[in-house]
From TrEMBL:
Domain called Cyclic nucleotide-binding: residue spans: 12-131
UniProt cross-references to SMART domains, sorted A to Z: cNMP
Top-level taxon of origin: Bacteria
SUPFAM superfamilies: cAMP-binding domain-like (SSF51206), Winged helix' DNA-binding domain (SSF46785)
Organism: Tumidithrix elongata BACA0141
CDD domains per UniProt: CAP_ED
One Pfam family linked to the record: cNMP_binding
Protein's name in the database: Crp/Fnr family transcriptional regulator
Cellular-component GO terms for this entry: cytosol
GO molecular function, one term: DNA-binding transcription factor activity
Length: 227
């Protein structure tokens, strides 16, 4: 992958000089995964950092026979950067929702790259703070009604990974169970809330193409606002 294209897709690297970035990508490997495939198993964390070139994935927690979706990631995001600094065992894996293309960079090469550019330390810290704020926001959402929790999750994903169209914002249509996990709302309540939002024509579902379109951004933003 060309360094210019990579830095445009992943703003974390937009300040890195071309030569250093080219060195980082020299050992990078691109891989394609079909939908439903396990991209990263629980015993593989810490081996590399993974950059999402296309597609949607979920990070899920595994406890006995139960799996809970912890996060959903899309194009332009990456994962595995924390695990290379933490050698403790992990009970999470990453599953492809849709066909996915990833670029993986070996852990050691990524660590060396961080030491090559002091600005990256600051950018990485900003990223960690941003993700911590999202975690704190999810904790605050537990006090909100189910509709607000669900709308907040959908708007957050749409803003991070959605595609703007003339009609609104287009994104992957999450399965009910995964949306319920992220919202910490029961599957039954999640289904009821979605039915009401669809009835109000605030969102549209294209089941055939696995797409959800947020067509009334104003109403969905208001519904998603933490009170």
């Amino acid at each position: 992958m060309q360094t210019e294209t990579f830095s445009e897709l992943f703003p974390l690297f937009d300040a890195a000089d071309a030569e250093t970035l080219e060195w980082l990508l020299s050992e990078a490997v691109e891989r394609d995964y079909p939908s439903g495939r396990a991209v990263l198993m629980e015993d593989a964390w810490g081996n590399a950092v993974y950059f999402i070139l296309s597609g949607w994935l979920k990070v899920r927690s595994l406890r006995n026979q139960d799996a809970t979706t912890l996060a959903v990631l899309g194009r332009g995001d990456f994962f595995g950067e924390m695990a290379i600094l933490d050698e403790s065992p992990r009970s999470t894996d990453v599953i492809a929702f849709t066909p996915v293309r990833l670029l993986s960079i070996p852990a050691q090469r990524f660590i060396q790259f961080l030491f090559k550019d002091s600005q990256l330390h600051h950018r990485m810290l900003q990223l960690m703070v941003r993700r911590l704020r999202r975690t704190n926001q999810r904790a605050q959402l537990r006090q909100q009604v189910p509709a607000t929790r669900i709308a907040n999750v959908l708007m957050g994903l749409a803003e991070s990974y959605g595609k703007k169209t003339d009609a609104g914002i287009e994104m992957f249509n999450l399965p009910i169970k995964d949306l319920a996990d992220l919202s910490e709302v029961s599957v039954d309540d999640t289904t009821k809330v979605l039915e009401k939002i669809i009835e109000k024509a605030w969102i549209q579902i294209d089941a055939k193409n696995q797409l959800l379109n947020i067509v009334n951004l104003k109403q969905m933003t208001q519904l998603a606002t933490v009170r």
